[in-house]
Hints:
Rossmann fold, 21 helices
Amino acid sequence: MSTFLELGLKAPINNALTDLGYEKPTVIQEKAIPQIISSTDDLKAFAQTGTGKTAAFSLPILELLNEDNSNVQAIILSPTRELAVQIGKNIEDFCKYLPKVKVTTVYGGANMDTQIRSLKRGSQIVVGTPGRTVDLINRRALKLGNVQWLVLDEADEMLNMGFKDELDKVLEATPETKQTLLFSATFPREVEAIAKNYMTKPVEITSGEKNQGSDNVSHEYYSVTERTRYPALKRIADLNPDIYAIIFCRTRRETQEVADNLIKDGYSADALHGDLSQGQRDSVMGKFRKKTIQILVATDVAARGLDVTELTHVLNHKLPDQIENYTHRSGRTGRAGNKGISIVLVNGKEKGKLRAIERIIKKKFVETKVPTGKEIVENQLMNLIDKVQATKVNESEINEFLPTIYEKLAALDREELIQKFVSLEFNTMLAYYENAKDLNDLSSRENSRARATNENMTRFFINIGRKDSLNPAKLIGLINDQNIGDKIEIGAIDILDTFSFFEIDKNFENETLAAFGENQPDFDGRSVNIEITKKERSGGGRRRGKKPFGKKDGGFGRKRSSEGSSDRGGRKRSDRSSSDRPKNSGDRKSGGFGRRRRER
Ligand code: AMP
């Protein structure tokens, strides 16, 4: 293993790295730094978040750039504002002893004039999100004619987020002579196309095998139904009282809903997604970094900029649409030498995707059973006992109270004392899990999805019916023609004489209204309108729209005094309450059974 000096970096950079506590280069740094310093060839690097890739591309650029020339010499594109800010900040740290080097970070949602002023003062390095970078190029505030290095960081994410046109524009605005450095955790077709079209015979390096997951991560899957998905998630959290995890969801709505349910059920959780303002996102990320919250429920995109190295678990509430993204998700744990567990909750249909993921990560998923109430109680109990064993006694503080306490408890022998102490902590939890169902028997009536499905649908009124020659097939055709979404699921359909009802996946409620509103379709010459109506009936055959998946998840808040006896069916969200959760049994800070009360 080389040192940073041996990789060809000068003393001022090496000193800054020492101040940051970087003792030795990571694998990707060891490969990328000498390569970029010694060659102007383009570079394709397979590297995940957490591998040290920011330093891998920015340190050689700092080594080579001309500090006395204030033109933009390096442009670094990153998919999100958070990541751009993080890269900008890292580079500033790296040039602590290179005072002439200036870095400007540009991103959307912030004042453009401030960014323009900073660019005018002269910056050798610009870090930007694609959209804002193109805006500034168009305004001639950002001139890339002298660029020597173009870095595409997390290229796969940028393309996932639909920045293809922006990437094309930036690539065209930079001179042909530049060196392009492309960093990506996955290499789907679109990324390969960028490499093919815009890079000349790139050198390939990797921090591990292409797309392969970290060795420090083990992968587990739990079989669930839509009805058991959320309770299973909670049991996993309950089994791990010191959990520090990101739960990944596919949509903003799913994210908010899972987070809302967890918060209501007393977990130390919060949501992170694109519907939140920047201020809200910064606040949530700040709390998660400080571990004020233990569980972050997030969309893939929103979690990109979050740099935490100690996650114990990554939970896939639903698998990502593009399975390559599983590597991104699972790579958030098992970082900086820590071990991590990536957990996937899958229903019967989703299980098929696991084989494809195994081929990418070159590892097998281990099938794991949803813990029983007894296992959780046992685990929590042992966790508490371990903590008691490890607790330091602050004699000077408690000495004055001890004589009275000893006197009060004098009548109890050792065993009785232990029993009472354990019961004090555990009675509520024991009661809570007393009648807990086995969530692994997926065919049981309680666990099967049938009763939960309608909770996830929104019922619409439509002003055409049998007299307009409408039938279910035609109605499905009409709905699909509105291009509401690839994964829309259509539920029960009731065709009546002059009007009808249909159900749509609740996730697509707004999109459905908007699509019908915008398209203003007609049906055999009659203009069609729809509105949301109250749900009147349950059951009814489910019919598929374009694709079978995409159904919203049910939330199964606890209402009664035990998990086993709670009636989870057909309840409105407002009925749920956190008051029924099992309380305090040995959580780290404020007590609470692997959870804490909301700290907001
Ligand atoms: P990155 O993959 O660039 O997001 O880096 C992940 C984390 O590892 C960041 O917190 C970096 O500050 C840290 N890091 C990067 N390189 C090193 C290194 N050589 N030694 C110690 N920490 C590092």
